[in-house]
Design goal:
- By secondary structure, the protein is mostly helical.
- It has five helices and no strands.
- Helix 4 packs antiparallel against helix 5.
- The model has no long low-confidence stretch (mean pLDDT about 90).
Length: about 90
């Protein structure tokens, strides 16, 4: 019997992407592409990207843009978790 590859259904993908957009303000695919193509990431690394995002969040807080600040902080946390946290065994 041939191996059957199980993939996400269109509904599951839509639900996942809607969840990501609520958390990060964009999908993880877009977030990853944006971070990895940024000059800050290329020249200064992921740590500087995270710090830059946190500075952006501070400015959003000062302007009372709470939802934007929350999503920006989630993006910074994603950068730290993805690029700066050593994998656990």
């Amino acid at each position: 019997m041939p191996d059957i590859k199980i993939t996400e259904s269109a509904d599951a993908i839509d639900a996942r992407e809607r969840r990501e957009e609520r958390i990060y303000g964009c999908t993880l695919a877009i977030l990853k592409a944006t971070i990895e193509s940024s000059l800050t990431f290329k020249h200064s690394g992921a740590g500087m990207c995270a710090m830059s995002l946190m500075s952006d969040a501070q400015e959003e807080i000062a302007r009372n843009l709470r939802e934007d600040a929350r999503q920006t902080l989630n993006r910074a946390k994603w950068v730290v978790a993805t690029y700066l946290t050593p994998e656990r065994s």
